[in-house]
Amino acid sequence: MEFKGYLRKNGVGIRNYVGIMSTVGCSADVVQKIAQLNPRVKPIVHHQGCAQTPPDILNVENVLINLALNPNLFSVLLVNLGCESTSLEKIADAISKVKDVKTVTIEEKGMSEAVSKGLEITKKMCTESKKVKRKTFDLSELKLAIKCGASDTTSGIVSNPVAGRVADMIIELGGTVVFGETTELIGAEHVLARRAVSKEVADKLYSTVSTIEKRAMSMGVDMRGGQPTGGNIRGGITTIEEKSLGAICKTGSSKLIDVIDYGDRVTKKGLIFMDGPGRELEALTGFAAGGSQIMLFSTGSGAPQGFPIVPVIKASGNPYVCSNLSEHIDADLSSVFYGYETIDSAAKKVMNQIIDVSSGKLTKAEILGYDGNFDIYCRGPVI
Amino acid sequence: MSIRKAIIINVKDNVANALVDIKKGDVVRLDIGKMHFRLLIKSNIPFGHKFATKKISKDEKIIKYGEVIGKATNDIDAGEYVHIHNVIGLRARGDLEKTKT
Question: What are the pLDDT digits (tens) for A21-54?
């Protein structure tokens, strides 16, 4: 199977964006201003990068570098304030080894000058980006991220099993599938660990889950209400164990090849687990930094959001959501819910959607522009 | 094809999920593996929510997907609604840790 993408030095992109990225929360306004004046560029803004402990600053730098290296970005303009903790030089240096990167610093001459400089740079970048054309590539070039969100009972019986079948198909074709949401392995880690390729990978999985469980427990409360969320509970999910056992259906049946840290680049083929939270804003960022060019998002009660630089295909097996929220749902799996269609047959259709979207077809979140927000997962306090 | 009203996921499970809103007093047909049976529903069960498929005693494990999803805080009758009012999770219970110390 093949798709039409853009060849990069470090892989194949399925979009050809020029990105403008803030290296600290304080430079987000300038990024947004440039994007308003040049709507062809993708603004990438977040709230992190300063007044955090050194491990978090390193993490933010790592995530920003890896996000910029995502093959969906042709080139990148970095906008910093000047006095922040993240190192603009370090981030720019790492990106420059792979793609064109320029920088603008607000504290040099203020916002107006930064915006006009940024506009000039991104105009040139957009002209350059048009020279790259789509070519045919094997599907094994894809790193598909699989995520579930706004889960309800239908997630565990329809959309996650369909996503799992898709994951198996991508891996059988030589591709890579990455998933995360460590909190949503609590109570199901033993099932997944049986599929680990080695004892070392199984141990890594157990220790990652145990770390996040202890962090949640350190608050001295029952996690229920936060995880599972209020919406999960209204959707029929009673405990984190039930949510997790439904969530892991989206990982299919392939061997678990590796457990990696949040935002690290995925370098191995096959099924990869990335540590991170369940919340969309930060979870999708980790996968995009990992190098995922496309995401399949299984939803019960209808989470509509995409991601700034990575197309997100929304799939739901809840018949009410498929009908009421059809403007957000790309893959309507209600026929599986009703028992009219098999999981296999639905998964084949989703595979075709993945090929179409990878070759340029827009997702509903892209069409609606419901894809502007994200954040970076940090483990320490804001100080 | 008639719409299935409820589903049992694994043969080991002691709960089923409603696939439609089920009313107290309804009788639903359940199929799992080679087992086919009818069950009188004893509470209103909202779409997507669970009911017990057999009698579950207080402190007994609740099984779904063939795995433990929590334990009962009361005796639960077959056909009765199963959710946060009569089931607690066993994991990430920081509240219990606090009581221990």
Answer: 999 999 999 999 999 999 999 999 999 999 999 9
State the fold for domain A17-131: Rossmann fold (3.40.50)
Residue B94 phi/psi, 5-degree rounding, is -60, -25
- Torsion sign, CA atoms A325, A307, A32, A19: negative
Q: Give yes or no for residue B1 having a pLDDT over 80.
A: no
Structure confidence at residue B4 (pLDDT)? 84
Model confidence band, residue B99 (pLDDT cutoffs 50, 70, 90): low
Under an 8 A CB cutoff, do A223 and B89 touch? yes
Which of B89, B95, B18 is CA-nearest to residue A239?
Answer: B89
The amino acid occupying position A377 is Y
Chain B positions touching A229 (Cβ under 8 A) are none
Q: How many Å apart are CA A152 and CA B88, to the nearest integer?
A: 18
Q: At what angle do helices A111-129 and A28-37 cross, to 10 degrees?
A: 50
Domains and CATH numbers, chain B: 6-100 (2.30.130.110)
| Cβ atoms of A374 and A43 closer than 8 Å | no
Q: Are residues B19 and A241, on separate chains, in Cβ contact within 8 Å?
A: no
CA distance A183 to A243: 10
Q: The whole model's pTM is what?
A: 0.96
CB atoms under 10 Å from CB of A65, counted, come to 20
pLDDT digits (tens, 9 = 90+) for A174-220: 999 999 999 999 999 999 999 999 999 999 999 999 999 999 999 99
Q: Specify burial of residue B99 (Cβ count, 10 A radius: 0-12, 13-18, 19+).
A: exposed
Closest CA to B13 of B29, B28, B35: B35
ipTM of the complex: 0.96
Rounded CA gap, B62 and B87, in Å? 8
Taking CA–CA distances from A224, the nearest residue in chain B reads: B89
Q: Yes or no: say if A20 and A7 are a contact pair by the CB < 8 Å rule.
A: no
Q: Which of B4, B46, B69 sits opposite A238 (nearest CB)?
A: B69
| A276 reaches B (C-beta below 8 A) | no
* B19 CB within 8 Å of a chain A CB: yes
